Amino acid sequence: RLRGGAGGAPGELLFQAQAPPLGFSTFEVKQLSPGGPWDPPRRPSGDPEPWIENEHLRVLFDPVTGHLSEIQNLAKGFSLPVFQSFYWYNASAGDSQSSQASGAYIFRPNASTPVPVAKRAATQLLKTALVQELHQNFSAWCSQVLRLRPGQPYLELEWTVGPIPVSDGLGKEVISRFQTPLRTDGRFYTDSNGRQVLERRRDYRPTWNLSQSEPVAGNYYPVNTRIFIKDQKVQLTVLTDRSQGGSSVQDGSLELMVHRRLLNDDGRGLAEALDEPGDDGRGLVVRGRHLVLLDTAAAAADRHRPLAQETATSPYVVLAPGPGPHLRQVSG
Fold first, then answer.
1. What CA–CA distance (Å, rounded) separates 227 from 221?
2. Maximum distance among all alpha carbons in the chain?
3. Which pLDDT band, with edges at 50, 70 and 90, does 41 fall under?
4. Which helix (H) or strand (E) holds 308?
5. Are 225 and 65 a contacting pair, CB within 8 Å?
6. What is the CATH number for 250?
């Protein structure tokens, strides 16, 4: 998949590719005519019941708000209402010596309830033989593509966030949150360095009595490859393509921090705010992927363990102008 970046490239090239173990494949792309790129037909969000599906999953969306509303596991015959959207925590400014600012080393929102980026998303639906996608546009600086390919037993969410606006004088810490009716009893699970999965309990420590003063930050944990919530029957797992902070601050929900832009130093040694301007001076744009698995609690590990390893060791994509590499066989 070759996509335009934040600069607004007009087209997208999509094709299937395979690479051998411990090897590589090379593909050459040529423009055959001087005309503009072909744009496949897309349907706006006015569809009475927008959805995408393959042989494993059917994914439904709210026709009014454009948000994800339900995931159906077709192979095992069950479904789960899932609402997903983007929010931002208002970063604490630390306006006195006794008040801790949120910064490069410290996550400290000044309120436990995040602000939604948008209550509705403008959407477009794309269905081809190679892929089915719903494109969500939440704001000028936050968008997402939800994607299913044939044979793919997970839902792919490719999000693009930034430049985070700070003209209102507020530092922002942006999350992607999933909300479900699962009864999780204050428990959620994260991996340890991509291997062992650890149970986390909200507002609890196993070796001392915790007096929780930070209900959000005090329940955040490192997520290297995956985080999940479950009840006695159903498990919702989200895999990451990079290390992120994550939590379940409410029963039935899980969230992952995807981007931050702050205006104050946290006093931990960096001596500057986490406010990188980027090449154009407007701030950084981040693009990443979350892979969502819906399975029974008993069978979920059979999929999320190998998929986490596959995601962590995925092939590198290298783009370069010119005819590509010319290989020469060397005899010993």
1. 10
2. 70
3. low
4. helix 300-312
5. no
6. 2.70.98.30
3-state secondary structure of 101: coil
Classify residue 156 by its DSSP letter. E
In this structure, which amino acid lies at residue 252?
Answer: G
Cα 250 from Cα 187, distance rounded (Å)? 10
DSSP letter at 169 equals S
Query: Which residue reads 């060397």 in tokens?
Result: 330
The answer to whether residue 44 is domain-embedded is: no
| Whole-structure pTM value | 0.88
Q: Tell me, yes or no, whether 40 lies in a domain.
A: no
Residue 59: inside a domain = no
Q: What's the 3-state SS for 211-255? A: CCCCCCHHHCEEECCEEEEECCCEEEEEEECCCEEEECCCCCEEE
Within a domain: 19: no
Strand residue runs (E) in the chain? 43-44, 51-53, 57-61, 68-73, 78-90, 115-116, 122-127, 132-139, 142-148, 155-161, 172-179, 187-192, 196-201, 221-223, 226-230, 234-240, 244-247, 253-261, 286-296
Residue 197 forms beta bridges with which residues? Answer: 191
pLDDT tens per residue across span 186-244: 999 999 987 899 999 999 998 999 998 899 999 999 999 999 999 999 999 999 999 99
Range of the domain at 230: 84-302
3-state helix, strand, coil in the chain (%, to 5): 5, 35, 60
In the chain, the number of structural domains is 1
Task: Quote the CA–CA distance of 223 and 315 in Å, as a whole number.
Answer: 21
Structure tokens at 276: 């990188």
Given a contact cutoff of 8 angstroms between Cβ atoms, the answer to whether 117 and 86 are in contact is yes
